[in-house]
Structures are given as structure tokens and as C-alpha cells.
Design goal:
Helices cover 27% and strands 26% of the residues. The chain has 12 helices and 23 strands. The strands form 5 sheets. Strands 10-9-8-7-6-11-12 form a 7-stranded antiparallel β-sheet.
């Protein structure tokens, strides 16, 4: 059996395998810290196999993924998944087409009702400069508005409107000349935003005041219910950003606002206290934490068509939640390394996997005279590639029953007659061939 046409889903499948393997191979601490990363037990291995084996058609699980997340968090869960599994396979079905608009930091104040966002000074929206009200302005006007804002603010933040992970962030300080600001704007080319700098609440900045420290909050929209999955607090330890990919660390936040026992970095190194402030994590409580949960649920409730939503939320210096960034679906690593199931719990995870990986995911294959979509338990014919006048469609292909024939499967062929099992369903134009319709005999 050969793959003859790598369509989007097949490509995502290959990328999922590659990304999952990359994560395992680059998790250095897991190979050295034996006290925490002790081997899986036979019972744990059996639970992992019971959960994943039925999805073997779509994803070949590596049990080291569940080992890493379970040991790093101290909470075993057989349904932990690699980033590639979610992003390249399930993400096929998660992201509604509206997400591109929702994701842009330029659009956030206009998308979400009653949601506090950082104050916009100017932006570049798809190559066009705009002011805070989205009115079109020139480059020179954008520079002038930025300089005017710097008379009131010690610095402003400039960042891409759709990038994440702290990529492309710059700061403009009071006194910066026009030419320098203009060169910075032109270096982005397009799609960036200039905002007032958000300052953390004291309860957060006490850990580390050099960066904006944010909560990564995850929620799930599924069958008419919004589920709060959990969240972590991301804290910088060097530089201006808190992202784990930029050297930040992260710690689980329990639903009562208390922090977990220890923080981790992206390689699984453990921190029982912040390396700069020396504040211990275990038992530390974020005041009025329920406001962050309610804030995240309000946001997801406005765009429930995004099934998995990961939000970056800060507590500002007045104690109000403020939306920094939206991600759909967002990565699984920070949550699962902190013992938070990315799909709420293993029961919902299995329900979702059954719905998407078993029923909707397929690989485009070719065997003999047929190109077909191979699903978990059946195949559907996409194209007949043979040269026969009488085509007798088999009941099975690749060891799976044929259940469907798609439109135009016989266009451009020499077939005059098709014989097939009466249980096979055909689309209305499956047997069209030019201006003629092929004779079909069901048996």
C-alpha cells in the first residue's frame, strides 16, 4: 500500500509523529533526574495501552509522552498527549474559520464585549496603519501618536499582532527619536501593534518584576458545555517575557488560587522557589483568583465555536484580569507538565478522540486500481484508476470494508458497467462519466 497523494491530513499526521518524537528526545531532564522520572509501572503501561491502542490508525502513541507528563507533574494520566497530536491532528477539527480574526491582538478589543485589553496606541493591520479607533492613518501619523503617548508613558510595547511565545517583542522608551521609531515600524513590515505596557498586580510582580507574568488558562467547549480545564502561572526569571520558550518558568494554579508545590521550565527542571526572588511556590495564594476563572469563561463563552481555547491573562496593578493573547488550541505541554488534562479529564478526552480520530480522520491511500480514504474501520473510494470496461468493486480494501464511493470516482475512465455490493453507498454523481452515466448493478 502506497501513499500517492499527501493531502493536508496526511501531512499533519506525519508532523504529529515528528513533533511528538522531538518533544521526547529534547526533554533532557527526564533522562537524568531519576528521583522524579522513575519508570512507568506495568499497570500504568497497561492503562496507557488501553487508552491509545484503539487510535493506532491515526496516531502511534509513544508511552514516553505519558511518562514525562506524569512524572513531571506527579499526577498520572494515560490520556496525556504530545503537542503534535493536538496541533496537527485534532486541530484539523478545532479551529473555526473565525479564529484568524479572533486571534489578532489588533481585533481583540472589538471582538470581545466587556473584556479588558491592553490600551492600543497605533497598529499596522495587513500593511495599513490605524489609530486606536481603527481609523486609517499614515506612517508619519503613527509615529507622531507614538511619540505623544511616550510623553505620558515611560515606555511602550511593540509586538506582532498574531505571533506568540514572546517572538518579536520590542520596547520604545521615552525620548526615542522619530527616525528610530519609524525604522522599528518598518522592520515589522506589517501586522504589529503598539500598546501601553501592562503592569502586574503586586501579588504577581513580587515573584519577578522584570517581566509581565501571565496565567495560561485552558477551557473546552464541548456539546453545549464550557469546561474550565485549569491554568498555570508563567513567570519570567531573566529578561522581559515569561514564556517558557524564552527561559520562563511555570507553576500550577489550583482552583482556590494556591500555587502548586514546584515550578518547572520547559526541560522539566524543578524550582521549589523562584530563582530570583526566592519566594516559595507551595501554598502561595493569588488573591481574588476566581476573577481570572470567571474572566476566562466569559471570553470563551463569546466564541464557543473555538472548541479548545488557551488564553494568556494578566492581573494588572489594579487587580483586574486583562486579556493579553488568545490561542486556539494552544499547546498541551505547560498544562500537562503541571498535571492538568488538556481536555478536562480522561473521560472527555476519550469521547473527543472517539468522535474525531475514529470517525473523521482519514489517510489518502492507493491500492491496486483504487485511490481511497482509509478511516479507522472502513474505506471510501475516491477514484478508480483501472482500465477495465466492467469494474467489479471488491467488498474489502486494505483489510477494511468499502462503505462509500465519492462523486466523480469514475470520471475519465473506460468503465461501461459497475458491479458492487448493495451495502455500498454512492454519492449522486459517483458514476458520472462525461455526459453519460455508467450502468450500475447491485448484488
Amino acid at each position: 500500500m502506497d501513499i500517492v497523494n499527501i493531502d493536508g491530513r496526511v501531512l499533519r499526521q506525519h508532523r504529529a509523529f515528528a513533533r511528538n518524537e522531538w518533544f521526547v528526545n529534547n526533554f533532557h531532564a527526564a533522562k537524568t533526574n531519576r528521583e522524579i522520572y522513575y519508570p512507568l509501572s506495568s499497570n500504568e503501561k497497561n492503562e496507557i495501552a488501553d487508552f491509545w491502542d484503539s487510535y493506532g490508525f491515526a496516531i502511534k502513541n509513544n508511552e514516553k509522552i505519558q511518562w514525562i507528563f506524569s512524572r513531571a507533574s506527579g499526577i498520572f494520566d494515560p490520556s496525556y498527549m504530545g503537542f503534535g497530536t493536538q496541533f496537527f491532528l485534532l486541530n484539523t477539527f478545532w479551529n473555526h474559520y473565525s479564529y484568524t480574526y479572533c486571534r489578532s491582538k489588533i481585533n481583540m478589543p472589538f471582538v470581545f464585549c466587556g473584556i479588558k485589553c491592553p490600551t492600543t496606541i497605533v497598529c499596522n493591520n495587513y500593511g495599513f496603519y490605524q489609530d486606536a479607533h481603527r481609523d486609517m492613518i499614515s506612517l508619519d501619523q503613527a509615529v507622531s501618536l507614538t511619540q505623544a503617548a511616550l510623553k505620558e508613558e515611560p515606555e511602550l510595547l511593540v509586538k506582532p499582532s498574531q505571533e506568540g511565545e514572546g517572538i518579536g517583542i520590542n520596547f520604545i522608551k521615552t525620548g526615542t527619536d522619530r527616525e528610530t521609531i519609524k525604522k522599528l515600524f518598518l522592520s515589522y513590515s506589517k501586522d504589529f501593534i503598539v500598546q501601553k505596557v501592562v503592569k502586574n498586580h503586586k501579588s504577581i510582580s513580587d515573584f519577578y518584576s522584570g517581566s509581565l507574568n501571565t496565567f495560561r488558562v485552558s477551557s473546552l467547549s464541548w456539546r453545549g458545555v464550557l469546561y474550565y480545564n485549569g491554568e498555570v502561572l508563567r513567570i519570567g526569571q531573566a529578561g522581559r517575557v515569561d514564556n517558557a520558550a524564552r527561559g520562563g518558568i511555570f507553576v500550577r494554579v489550583n482552583q482556590d488560587g494556591t500555587l502548586g508545590k514546584y515550578a518547572l521550565n520547559e526541560h522539566g527542571n524543578v524550582f521549589y522557589e523562584h530563582p530570583v526572588s526566592k519566594i516559595k511556590f507551595e501554598g502561595y495564594k493569588i488573591p481574588d483568583f476566581q476573577k481570572v476563572i470567571d474572566f476566562s469563561q466569559k471570553i470563551h463563552g463569546q466564541i464557543p465555536q473555538q472548541r479548545i481555547l488557551s488564553l494568556d491573562i494578566a492581573l494588572d496593578d489594579s487587580g483586574d484580569p486583562i486579556l493579553i493573547e488568545t490561542n486556539s488550541p494552544g499547546g498541551t505541554e505547560l498544562l500537562q507538565l503541571s498535571g492538568i488534562n488538556a481536555y478536562h479529564n480522561r473521560i472527555l478526552a476519550k469521547e473527543i478522540f472517539d468522535e474525531y480520530l475514529k470517525k473523521k480522520f482519514f489517510v489518502l491511500n492507493r491500492f491496486g486500481d483504487y485511490t481511497f480514504r482509509e478511516f479507522d474501520d472502513h474505506v471510501s473510494i475516491v477514484k478508480y484508476n483501472g482500465s477495465k470496461l466492467l469494474c467489479e468493486i471488491p467488498e474489502m480494501l486494505a483489510g477494511k470494508p468499502i462503505l462509500k464511493i465519492y462523486d466523480n470516482a469514475f470520471q475519465g475512465t473506460m468503465v461501461k458497467m459497475v458491479v458492487m455490493n448493495s451495502k455500498i453507498v454512492s454519492e449522486p454523481h459517483a458514476f458520472d462519466n462525461g455526459n453519460k452515466r455508467i450502468v450500475v448493478e447491485s448484488i
